[in-house]
Each structure stands twice: as C-alpha cells, then as structure tokens.
Amino acid sequence: MAETTIQVSTELLAKLKVMKLHEKESYEDLLWDLIEDRLELSEETKKSIAQSRQEYNEGKYKTFEQVKEDLDP
1-5, 16-20, 48-52 — which is least confidently predicted? Predict the structure, then answer.
C-alpha cells in the first residue's frame, strides 16, 4: 500500500479521534467507513427525503400532539 500524508486542521483531527470506534482503529479504516456510509445512503436518503417532503406538502403527517393523543388510552 502506498502511503501518503494529508493535512487536516487540529479541530478535524479532534473530531476524527472522537469518531473512532476503538482506540486502535486506524484513520484509514475510519475514513473508509465514512465514505462507505455516504455512498450507501446517498441515493436511498435522497429518495426518502423527497418522499417525506412530498407527504408533508400534501398534509400527510401528524403533529407530536396528535401522535400523543392517539397513543394515550
């Protein structure tokens, strides 16, 4: 594997450290996971958002208060 160095801000490095699942996880593994998540969810998420917006615009939703009323015995 060819190795290279990338420059990131101290702020980004701190956020990446927090995102690691475990201390020994490499930054490469972390970045691949982030890329995978973005690629996998991209089209599915876009479709879901579009559908939700359409339903909202058509008035096909319930407020929190309505849901609470439905669930209260």
Answer: 1-5
